[in-house]
């Protein structure tokens, strides 16, 4: 039997954040039982604000010093640019971590390499190799947790619908020069790296996501050889490793069976 993702629909963002916090705590404890660091990657967009909940920031059970944070995707812009996913995470989360806590290890892109996105992607892949293992000894890095967004067009990371990057099989990190959502020059984790993670959480809120949520959960273009949205490809590739944290507005009209708690 195919293993399906979980889809949670919460009445408000505060309940969503409470549940997301519990889920992260479990992922952290599973990871730290296996190895010294909790290795995660995060998206930009609406994700950092929802991630940085009061309950997470006040928690004494979050071992910030053991967190190793990568970016699921990043725009090829300076680290202080308003379009930078690093700048967003810093503003929403990193700067709010209590000063009394140990600091997480954060892996931003190398701002010296912005002129060539392939060099930028290769350098970021080297950072992954430094943390996980050499590419010839492991086929793919295994993140403990990915915290991802879902664009209204069904993109995740910087993997866009119908884009050739969805077929990438070798690179861990790929360059994109023609992102349909600005800015066009970016780097992204590739689909095999995403689906290889131990846990994958999508966070999608607001009525602006309900059309795409219906497409992701209630249509099956793969059955007819049609184009499958990137978020749906993650569902198909990673199955029950995937959990969706949504509010009611985002899942209005979605038929796929929804749960309201973990
Ligand atoms: O461009 C991007 O968009 C997606 C989705 O953003 P959202 O605001 O609709 O949540 C985001 O996950 C990705 O990291 C970002 O680069």
Automatic annotation (TrEMBL):
<dbReference type="InterPro" id="IPR037171">
    <property type="entry name" value="NagB/RpiA_transferase-like"/>
</dbReference>
<dbReference type="GO" id="GO:0005975">
    <property type="term" value="P:carbohydrate metabolic process"/>
</dbReference>
<keyword id="KW-0378">Hydrolase</keyword>
<dbReference type="InterPro" id="IPR039104">
    <property type="entry name" value="6PGL"/>
</dbReference>
<dbReference type="GO" id="GO:0017057">
    <property type="term" value="F:6-phosphogluconolactonase activity"/>
</dbReference>
<comment type="function">
    <text>Hydrolysis of 6-phosphogluconolactone to 6-phosphogluconate.</text>
</comment>
<dbReference type="InterPro" id="IPR005900">
    <property type="entry name" value="6-phosphogluconolactonase_DevB"/>
</dbReference>
<dbReference type="Pfam" id="PF01182">
    <property type="entry name" value="Glucosamine_iso"/>
</dbReference>
<dbReference type="InterPro" id="IPR006148">
    <property type="entry name" value="Glc/Gal-6P_isomerase"/>
</dbReference>
<protein>
    <recommendedName>
        <fullName>6-phosphogluconolactonase</fullName>
        <ecNumber>3.1.1.31</ecNumber>
    </recommendedName>
</protein>
<comment type="pathway">
    <text>Carbohydrate degradation; pentose phosphate pathway; D-ribulose 5-phosphate from D-glucose 6-phosphate (oxidative stage): step 2/3.</text>
</comment>
<dbReference type="GO" id="GO:0006098">
    <property type="term" value="P:pentose-phosphate shunt"/>
</dbReference>
<comment type="similarity">
    <text>Belongs to the glucosamine/galactosamine-6-phosphate isomerase family. 6-phosphogluconolactonase subfamily.</text>
</comment>
<feature type="domain" description="Glucosamine/galactosamine-6-phosphate isomerase">
    <location>
        <begin position="12"/>
        <end position="239"/>
    </location>
</feature>
